[in-house]
Amino acid sequence: MGLELYLDLISQPCRAVYIFAKKNGIPFELRTVELLKGQHHSDAFAQVNPLKKVPALKDGDFTLAESVAILLYLCRKYEVPDHWYPQDLQARARVDEYLAWQHTALRNSCTRAMWQKMMFPVFLGEQVPPETLASTLAELERCLQLLEDKFLKDQDFLAGPHISVADLVAITELMHPVSAGCQVFKSRPKLAAWRQRVEAAVGKDLFQEAHAVVMKAKDLPPADSAIKEKLKPSVQVLLQ
Amino acid sequence: MWPPPPAPEPGSSPLSTESPENSCCCENSGLPGLMTTPSETRSSRMRVLGLGWRGPTGTEPGPGAQAAYRLRFRTCWLWLVGVPDTCLSMGLELYLDLLSASCRAVYIFARKNNIPFDFQFVDLLKGHHHSKEYIKINPLKKVPSLKDGKFVLSESVAILFYLCRKYSTPSHWYPPDLHTRARVDEFMAWQHTAIQMPMSRILWIKMLIPMITGEEVPDEKVEQMLAEVKNSMQLFEEKFLQDKMFISGDHISLADVVALVEMMQRGQELEGRPGTGRRTQHFSVSQP
């Protein structure tokens, strides 16, 4: 068995790993783990990732969790072009800095925005208090401002003149609230221009392919009560 | 230019023998190389670091508790005490407040590897991280930050990797083997949301906000976060540490430093977990 990637493309970090592997021609078996059916809680998947999250990687007997770790592993094992994770000390530090910051900043606010605006009302049939949603969207705005001012600045990409794994991680995050109807790029021409550059560097077809699932999430039929019971405990935290 | 902190008190010793009444042994023992604040604040820092007396205010630690605190402090200190004091040097600047676990990770790593740096104290309790001067250095308004000539870097994980590479530290800190390195990366990524975020919230809610505002925060908020942390500690033992000596295998790495500083922040919740007790001992005996 070769490289296996356990993914659900509704998830931001899964999309980043998917795009990266495809763009670099890394051969892998796609193992879909349907989050909305609670498949990540199965015993079989726990063998691959006891943290019960996607993405996960299985390379022979070696298993690995965490999208950032997976991206760096693929970078090294498949000796991808340098710009994805540059050798230069300071350029690499910039990528590391973004990859560290985003966990508790952009990731948090993008996930909450998408779930509170769309998934809770549409899929789970649960209304979210307007003040909760407003607070989440304000936090998202704050993170987007930091993304522009601190990371992107006047550069073409987040870590400098060339696309890196940091850009993949960021763009897939931003597409999450976009899928829920948030106009993330409308009032931010700098980010909109960066998005065009990232899409062009990745390839429009691959970009759209990776985002097909999440962009259709708004058309999902409401979940049945069995699914609701299964998912509610783990998604309640997204209402805080 | 960030104001330089005051020099350490003369005659201070890292290891005191008897505790003064009503205080922990650490209270009057400045840590050489640690740029100090007035002793009152330092003793409160020691308490927050989990190295001080944590009983009800106005009570004395009993002899057993005193011995336990001395052991904890010495265990941590012995691991550091072999390092010469090469703290003071122009060039690399580290903006730190050792109240913060991520600052402690960077501090320990730099000291352990004899990386010369200027300790620039950013007083979180005084809100210095929100000052105009500091925002120019790190617009994310967080510590730690690194300044190396004109190059400025935030995020402790990024700083640790940068120091590893620039100063060519021994390879066990960030092993070159593909799988072993991936294990370190995996933990470093996971800990942001699983450990660092809830631990940092507990620190602010349980200690820092009451200290600054005088207001207590409802216990339920803390209970919820403690439950999160306990769950993460369970995962840490079962998935990351398992039966190994260290996270990546037989040798200490960056992952262990990052893990340990978080656990030392709220020591009492984690006592009684055999894995964490074992790793603290390994820290004290395994380093030359």
Automatic annotation (TrEMBL), chain A:
Molecular function terms, GO-annotated: glutathione transferase activity
Pfam families: GST_C, GST_N
First-level EC class: transferase
Subcellular location: Cytoplasm
GO biological process: glutathione metabolic process
Protein family (similarity comment): Belongs to the GST superfamily. Theta family.
Protein name: glutathione transferase
Gene source species: Acinonyx jubatus (Cheetah)
Automatic annotation (TrEMBL), chain B:
SUPFAM superfamilies: GST C-terminal domain-like (SSF47616), Thioredoxin-like (SSF52833)
GST N-terminal domain mapped to chain residues: 90-171
Top-level lineage group: Eukaryota
Subcellular location: Cytoplasm
Location (main, coarse): cytoplasm
Regions of compositional bias (Pro residues) in chain numbering: 1-11
Keywords, ordered alphabetically: Cytoplasm
Region (Disordered): 1-24, 269-288
PROSITE patterns: GST_CTER, GST_NTER
Gene3D superfamilies: 1.20.1050.10, Glutaredoxin (3.40.30.10)
Stretches assigned to the GST C-terminal domain: 177-288
InterPro entries: Glutathione-S-Trfase_C-like, Glutathione-S-Trfase_C_sf, Glutathione_S-Trfase, Glutathione_S-Trfase_N, GST_C, GST_N_Theta, GST_Theta, Thioredoxin-like_sf
Pfam family, one: GST_C
Family stated for the protein in its record: Belongs to the GST superfamily.
Name assigned to this protein: Glutathione S-transferase theta-4 isoform X2
Organism per entry: Acinonyx jubatus
